[in-house]
Amino acid sequence: MEQTVRDVITRLGVLQDVAVLCADTDLYDAGMSSHASVKLMLSLEDAFDIEFPDEALERETFASIEAITRTIAGIQASE
Amino acid sequence: MIASQAELTQQLLNSGLWISSKVNGVFGWGQGFETVISALDSRITQFSEADAATSINFPPILDRSILTRTGYLHSFPELCGSVHSFCGSEHEHQALLTAVEGDADWSPHVKQTDVALTPAVCYPLYPTLSGTLPEDGVLYSLSSYVFRHEPSLDPARLQAFRMRENVRLGNQAQVVAWRQLWMDRALSLLTSLELDVELDIATDPFFGRGGKMMKANQKQDEGKFEILCPITSAEEPTAIASFNYHQSKFSSVFEILLADGELAHSACIGFGLERCALALFSTHGMALETWPAAVRQELGL
User: Fold this and answer.
1) So what's the ipTM on this one?
2) Which residue in B184, B203, B175, B199 sits closest to B268, CA to CA?
3) CB-CB neighbors (< 8 A) of B70 in chain A
4) Which segment, A14-23, A69-78, B273-282, is predicted with the most confidence on average?
5) Is it true that domain B5-81+119-299 has CATH number 2.40.240.50?
6) CATH architecture designation of domain A2-77
7) pLDDT tens track for B275-298
8) Count of CB contacts below 8 A, A vs B?
């Protein structure tokens, strides 16, 4: 799953050198804008065929690759 | 007892303060209303003059690339006023007229122009500041009509209205302190006008589910505060002034630098002049001559 998340971020072109980002690197600190985080959210929904619930639509959910994979795993487990 | 939206609208129309246009959220203004708008604008501008803010103005249209470059269409697509005009031949003109005379949608016959309606007074300012700012940054006072496509029966939610803004660019500490100064000033001024106001953290009406994230980010960053006043509801007071800290959002797009080469930070503070006037009329009544003497004195009326 982590590789798919990295692929989605790479395709969006919002960050450089996605392959070498640590799983817990803060993506906002790495240069992701608010608008880019919205694009990332929608692209992840397409890639994983999920819908983030309202309570997940916050900064922390998309703050790192680790946070993203944890949230997606939670959504998939509850489906 | 606070008047409902419909009651307040009727009172404004009956007293000649407002003139109906038959389009929701679009009104004309009578003399009495304009007197109060001018008085408010002058009173606010006294602060700007004391600060030696540079006074400039733009028309209520702007280069539409400013909206695309700043992400306006990402955040507020439903509010945007895009300007289109006929650019065709005589034959194409006949097709346009056929649509017009048939009361049909004529949009297939017009083309997008280079301009859009200004959604916020400060937008046209930023591109003019590309380059390096003076040592202490810059300070501007400006006013214009702005457009938001949000037709509504709420008299406080207009499609076209005037904002008096002040804009500061400098380093983070300068800009944040300046925004705080204006929050204190505005609360003091509006309280002296005997309005029941409060300051609260706020968010912009970002579009869609992504907008929920944008709002969460903005709140976390304390990007926006508003002064609220009951106009047609005590439970849901209306924002009549806003205080916005953009960090380096605009300066990164337009490459506005400080003297030390770092990106500038920016903030704007804006008074919705029609909303401030509405707050006064709804609080003190439709007849200016019956307003409290202290309020009229503060406004020079």
Assistant:
1) 0.78
2) B175
3) none
4) B273-282
5) no
6) Orthogonal Bundle (1.10)
7) 999 999 999 999 999 999 999 999
8) 36
